[in-house]
Design a protein that fits this description.
4 strands; elongated; alpha+beta; 4-stranded antiparallel β-sheet
Length: 140
């Protein structure tokens, strides 16, 4: 095991960085007492989406103040981590954007149904991330 990678805890409401530890498959280092102790000390399990891994050389992307732990990887594990951390292709991202558009296309109708059902406008804003003024315009 020659290459280092970094396990880190992704802060809440932070864009996803690196790969989820579970996404790279079983890593030999994840069975070590050091990793078990680190996870236990932070009250998270290895299956948590907040437990992320980045390959060596990418530690600059770890959010400031995030808890981190350097871990050794074999050559094969390093390749898996690098592949899992590779950026998505443009077509994949464009497909996600189209899905988002389709999801948000009828947001006014959804908000109107929620208002009719008795969900308060501030709660709708909190759940959807919509601007409260946009929601208020629907109540006029």
């Amino acid at each position: 095991m020659a290459d280092d990678a970094y396990l880190f805890l992704l802060p809440e409401r932070h864009p996803r960085l690196g790969a989820a530890l579970t996404a790279v498959g079983t890593l030999e280092c994840s069975q070590t007492p050091a990793v078990h102790g680190w996870l236990q000390a932070h009250g998270v399990s290895a299956s948590s989406e907040h437990v992320r891994i980045l390959p060596a050389g990418a530690e600059a992307f770890i959010p400031e103040g995030a808890e981190r732990l350097p871990v050794p990887l074999s050559e094969e594990e390093t390749v898996r981590v690098q592949q899992e951390c590779a950026p998505q292709s443009v077509t994949d991202v464009e497909a996600e954007l189209l899905e988002f558009r389709e999801t948000t296309e009828d947001w006014q109708a959804l908000v109107q149904r929620a208002l009719t059902a008795g969900v308060p406008a501030p709660r709708i804003a909190q759940l959807t991330g919509l601007d409260p003024q946009d929601i208020a315009r629907l109540t006029l």
